[in-house]
């Protein structure tokens, strides 16, 4: 069986430009399957699959939250931590407008618009993580230290 080629996405271009070592992980994407499906397909712990969530504050300023696949974001706690009144997920259309990616294929790397990035602090302690590579059905494996170096996220503790 021929090995599938790496999709060339804005995320892949950014990772290469930043000299980040990453592994390609293609899988059969399932609509609304989320990290449970990607973890199952790749045979990895869902806690190591990091979801990229696009949200907005009350002023409609977009932001990205990176969270363990098996956890949720407390938007109330996130708003408190970052000093805004409220934070809510964007609609899929708004998220696509901000990032340039389809929901289900959103990567924090190579977004159309520069946004603040917030990282659940326990992600930094993982040995390696799997995060969207900018296309549905495609994750990249990276070490958290490279993600932190490239994205310069604010560390938060907002997972529930």
Largest sheet: 8 strands, mixed
Distance between the termini: 41 Å
The Cα radius of gyration reads 15 Å
For the record, the count of structural domains works out to 1
Low-confidence stretches: none
Q: Helix count?
A: 5
Characterization of this structure:
The chain has 160 residues and is an alpha/beta fold. The protein has a single domain, classed as YbaK protein (Alpha-Beta Complex). It is built from 5 helices and 8 strands; from the N terminus they run H-E-H-E-E-H-E-H-E-E-E-H-E. It has helices spanning 10-17, 34-42, 75-82, 92-99, 144-151, and strands at residues 23-26, 49-57, 62-68, 87-89, 116-120, 129-135, 138-142, 154-156. Strands 1, 2, 3, 4, 5, 6, 7 and 8 form an 8-stranded mixed beta sheet that branches. Strand 6 and strand 7 form a beta hairpin. It is globular and about 45 Å long.
């Amino acid at each position: 069986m021929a090995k599938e080629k790496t999709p060339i996405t804005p995320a892949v271009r950014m990772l290469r430009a930043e000299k980040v070592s990453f592994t390609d992980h293609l899988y059969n994407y399932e609509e609304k399957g989320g990290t449970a499906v990607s973890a199952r397909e790749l045979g990895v712990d869902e806690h190591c699959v990091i979801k990229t969530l696009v949200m907005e504050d009350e002023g409609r300023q977009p932001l990205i939250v990176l969270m363990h696949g098996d956890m949720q974001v407390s938007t109330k706690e996130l708003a408190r931590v970052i000093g805004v009144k409220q934070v809510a997920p964007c609609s899929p259309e708004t998220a696509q407008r901000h990032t340039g990616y389809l929901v289900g294929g959103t990567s924090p790397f190579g977004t159309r618009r520069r946004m603040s990035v917030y990282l659940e602090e326990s992600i930094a302690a993982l040995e390696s993580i799997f995060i969207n590579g900018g296309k549905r059905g495609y994750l990249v494996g990276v070490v958290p230290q490279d993600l932190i170096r490239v994205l310069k996220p604010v560390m938060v503790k907002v997972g529930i």
